[in-house]
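Pilot study result, target chain (160 residues):
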Amino acid sequence: MIAPADHFSEFRNFMTGLEYSISVLRSRRSSLPVLIKVRLPESQISSDIEAQLSRTMVRYCEHRIAYNRREARAVRLDGVSAMKVGIPLAIGGGLVALARSKALGGINASEIAGGVVMWVGLWYPLDTIFFSPLGFSRENQALSRLRDAVFVVEPLSTPS
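Predicted structure:
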């Protein structure tokens, strides 16, 4: 008989095995095949359990990859939408800085402030369009490796 899980144990991991696996795969560069060892009570092991686990993993990874692709598109769309504010802000800041520098001759605080406004106006949209979606693509690389994982199911050893 297997002892019930201690949900308050200091050794309890609150992440699912899938989340933990994705985290491990994202944190390391490797192209080695992924091997997942699963320990189950003997009564739950059948001849096709590894194939079932593999099919389920493929299905999960395909769904999550599709979800991440949609989320990356949504983030890029957020960046494009932010350009509606960012471009006028950048143009306005640039025009103010240009007018002040021509009127006063030389570089002054308002010109620097205008440059900062230009930068802020463009930074967020460009960062959102180009860099924010990278996390989704890194996760999709990990999911692609996880999708092709090899499962090995072993009987759970019980204390005598």
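One observation from the pilot: Residues 97 and 103 are 10 Å apart (CA to CA). A full batch analysis is planned for the follow-on phase.
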